[in-house]
Queue: 2 jobs
Job 1
Amino acid sequence: MDNEFLPDGEQSTGQESDGKALRRFGTEQKARADALANELAEIKAQLAKRDAEGIFAKLGVPEKVRKFYSGDPTEDAIAAWVKENADVFGIEVDAAPTEQQTEQVQQLTNVQQASQLGTDRSQAWTRDSIAQKRQGLLANGKNLDDLNALLAEIGVPDVPVSGSMM
């Protein structure tokens, strides 16, 4: 009789030994489950620590101050703790951004978007595709004003095309 609870290679000899094997199997499985539970707890702790470090870095909290935090590793909890203890540790908590800072962020965003114009889309307009479109418009009896309108429509800066493009 083959018993799945016996270690490999052992044969069942009777009812008494089967119960012993089952207890041993249960003990081994409990030990495995405990080891996995401990490993999971360690991984969760590592992830929480990494998340907390990211939040502290985002808030601009120095490494030396971070070690005093022992609460939940959530952004809300950390932000509240930093706000509450900022004066104790000499940390400046960023208030709401000023109008000038907001304007600078918007300008930087605009510059980044402009630098990526035509490169972040699969059907991006290239110099060659614009030249082909121009030739197609001119062949259909359109003029340069139509081309300039088309370029403005796709987001090319307001620089009129004149003369030849090639």
Note: The radius of gyration is 34 Å.
Job 2
Amino acid sequence: MFYVVLIWVCYIFLSFCDKASGNGVNGIKHAVKYAALRSFFGALCALVLLLFSGDGFSLNLPTLLSAIAFGVLVAADLLNFLFLAKTGMVALMTVSGQAGSLLIPLFAGVFIFSNPVKPIQWPFIVLLIFASYLLCNSSKGIYKNFSYNTVLMTLARLLFCGLGTVSMQSFEKYGNQNLNLFFLVAFIVSGTVLSLTYPFLKAEGDKSSLKLSKKLILFAFIAAAVTFGADAFVVLAMKYLPPVIQFPLTAAGSITVSWLIGAICFKEKITIKSTAAIILSATSVIMINYFN
């Protein structure tokens, strides 16, 4: 249970950094610059862990292809959620990511791994989608700049996170099991894609508006570090708790933590609607995984 608590602590920092960095970027070019820096910080963390693990740099084709796909999706998701953070609740960002990481691999498994969706999972899938709708509705009541673009960005986050999980599953099935090397390649790809895009984008304002503040640089580093910290604690937690217990605790905890961070740090009003959405989404994620 100790490692599960540490995972929750990591999600506290990650939820705060995600929302604060989204509020801090100004325009697409500024966002690309921040996202590229965060990706390269992620690559640095992966490199440090790879060197300490001693797993080496042997790279087979399935690992390379999976990492490239994952890296492109990370780049897209980073940009997307930076703008979603401006008009959506912190919990909406977390739930849409959790929903995508669970539902899209579930449906992809029907075609890729011949694993059909169980009938008992369908009611909870519907509840999870309904919970996401409630959070969108709650965001509309909190943020005056909420628009249909917020809904589209929510769906995009669901898609990017889901396809990213499929990429990781492909790596786990066909790759060389060197997870740190997988992340190193993926984050280098993500940072490179964003960096190559940067010169072609039009700046909103003068050159000084593109400068990353010390806070944004700190947020990028902390977010990259705690992401790897959470992954490490998940591995350690699995030594003491079976996945059927560990995953629900982690998933439900991350959803609840993000909701509380939004309320405490960003003054997102707690309503009956948002409370119901959190309970429904946490319950749905737990039950879908339990019957998986």
Note: The two ends are 23 Å apart (CA to CA).
